[in-house]
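Q: Sequence in, structure out?
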Amino acid sequence: MISLHITASRKIRSLREFVRGLVHTAHPLLVQIIPIRRCNIDCGYCNEYDKVSAPVPAEALRRRIDKLAELGTSVVAFSGGEPMLHPDLDDLVRHIRRRGMMAGLITNGYFLVPNRIEALNAAGLDFLQISIDNVEPDDVSKKSLRLLDKKLEALKTHAAFDVNINSVLGGGIKNPEDARTINTRARALGFSTSIGIIHDGSGRLKPLGPAERTVYDEVSAAINGPWLVFKNLYSGITNFQDNLADGEPNEWRCRAGARYLYVCEDGLVHYCSQQRGFPAVPLETYTITDIRREFVTPKPCAPYCTVGCVHRVSTMDFWRGPQRRSTVDTRLSTVGTKLTTDD
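A: Exactly. Output:
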């Protein structure tokens, strides 16, 4: 009964933020914030972690969360590195909720034992995402279904928050059929699912091969099936990947720096995890003026971008706010061919 109440409350808050996002454009819809750069595993395609960084002090993170609330942010999600390595994570999730925002977590799943899941419930976590890359661990990724399946069962039993399981193709993943297996298992457990196309270790996107493309089409069709459309309402936005699967560009209006922000461990706002350094403005000085400027600023890296969260958030405004090439920072001319990936 309590779980049903929590779910209903979350749906109402999600609907409220959706409507607010339709009406007003000068606030972030999703901010990913890095509480720690360190990670307990090392995946061959990942450039977002190290093995030495200390956690960002909790008080600094609280100030950043307060600033995001002042900007009218809808959702704040912790990413990394591995955010569950931060010793104050639960209190920080609680602080996001106290400030009236929705709280999310992107994790590799290794630390999801029942008591940690219950602690996240108590903190008020709204959603959690795990990207599982293969069925058996290999030299490309340790995020395997065999190692994480018991964690998924624990989530099924204990989690009061929404859970999304992302499977991937490309980027050196050896067995494309694994994405189908992972997606099928996640759906059987009642989780929402998604599929992503990732770059290789050099940051380059390659067209999917025939076997990969077959799996991509089958999994995408399953995600967007008639009985799952509402469960996968957000993660089911996959049309941007159809061109990428063939190595072709997309024409779209990237709203990074406006509707989506990536706040690194140093407290700087970047377009995304793969374009760190642009615009690299301290969050403490970020204003509505910055948001409005970036809303209409096209990004040269956009045509081949595979950062799913930015695509999905930008979908909200696909029909409005034409972007002006003259507003692009000339520094970005060097990153137009750098390809990106995320959730």
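The radius of gyration is 19 Å.
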